[in-house]
Amino acid sequence: GVTIPSQRRYVEYYAALVTSGLQYSATRVHIRELVMSPPPTLNGGTCSPELTVSQAQPSFKTPSGCHEVRKDEGSIRVYLTHCTPLYGDVRVDVYNKPKMKMRKEKLFHFWFNTFFVAAGVGAERVPALDDSPNLEAFKLTLNKWQLDEAHKDKQHKHYSPDFKVELIVQKMPMSSTFSGHPARESPAVSSSSSCCSEPDDAEPDAHWDSGELPITLLTLSR
């Protein structure tokens, strides 16, 4: 059976394609923000998140560190300050990188397809962002059971039962090639920022070929 959360998501995508009459087309989106609430409970103390965003075809990976982190009592917000518009199957990897440690530790990852998010399948439309009122915005909300690896935390050791991730994306014009926006102002107890740099311990390409890859729409249609 299908047990990996991202694979279940792609089964739902295919079901929507069959039952709703949607016509699949490449849809570009720009990831603006990822919110984790409540913050994970880690052995090393507070969570210092870092993201890696990868596109499946054509293969592309954004440099890590192009983001700003803001924390408050109930959530951690990661604003992407620069992100090339993405389309098709996209993977988001979330790490914890404590300041006193050289290597980052993997927390969880998830896959989504840009067309279905922008079509409102498993996602919802939200008000346009203040700095780009002419672009449609959507929110993908995933609970811990919908996150690859986090779903294995059945004893709630690191993630509370109500843990969730919210991903805010904007639908981009097909002519877009690159977009960068300053992080939006938000009240926070503490904040930190990272410069754009290549990851110091990049994920091996074998991850794309592992059993954790989502079921593709092509596979499901056979």
Automatic annotation (TrEMBL):
<dbReference type="GO" id="GO:0043491">
    <property type="term" value="P:phosphatidylinositol 3-kinase/protein kinase B signal transduction"/>
</dbReference>
<dbReference type="GO" id="GO:0005829">
    <property type="term" value="C:cytosol"/>
</dbReference>
<keyword id="KW-0812">Transmembrane</keyword>
<dbReference type="GO" id="GO:0042995">
    <property type="term" value="C:cell projection"/>
</dbReference>
<protein>
    <submittedName>
        <fullName>SFRICE_021279</fullName>
    </submittedName>
</protein>
<dbReference type="GO" id="GO:0005886">
    <property type="term" value="C:plasma membrane"/>
</dbReference>
<dbReference type="GO" id="GO:0016314">
    <property type="term" value="F:phosphatidylinositol-3,4,5-trisphosphate 3-phosphatase activity"/>
</dbReference>
<keyword id="KW-0472">Membrane</keyword>
<feature type="domain" description="C2 tensin-type">
    <location>
        <begin position="26"/>
        <end position="172"/>
    </location>
</feature>
<dbReference type="GO" id="GO:0008285">
    <property type="term" value="P:negative regulation of cell population proliferation"/>
</dbReference>
<dbReference type="GO" id="GO:0004725">
    <property type="term" value="F:protein tyrosine phosphatase activity"/>
</dbReference>
<dbReference type="InterPro" id="IPR051281">
    <property type="entry name" value="Dual-spec_lipid-protein_phosph"/>
</dbReference>
<dbReference type="InterPro" id="IPR035892">
    <property type="entry name" value="C2_domain_sf"/>
</dbReference>
<feature type="transmembrane region" description="Helical">
    <location>
        <begin position="107"/>
        <end position="123"/>
    </location>
</feature>
<dbReference type="GO" id="GO:0051896">
    <property type="term" value="P:regulation of phosphatidylinositol 3-kinase/protein kinase B signal transduction"/>
</dbReference>
<keyword id="KW-1133">Transmembrane helix</keyword>
<dbReference type="InterPro" id="IPR014020">
    <property type="entry name" value="Tensin_C2-dom"/>
</dbReference>
<dbReference type="GO" id="GO:0048870">
    <property type="term" value="P:cell motility"/>
</dbReference>
<dbReference type="GO" id="GO:0046856">
    <property type="term" value="P:phosphatidylinositol dephosphorylation"/>
</dbReference>
<dbReference type="GO" id="GO:0005634">
    <property type="term" value="C:nucleus"/>
</dbReference>
<dbReference type="Pfam" id="PF10409">
    <property type="entry name" value="PTEN_C2"/>
</dbReference>
<feature type="region of interest" description="Disordered">
    <location>
        <begin position="176"/>
        <end position="210"/>
    </location>
</feature>
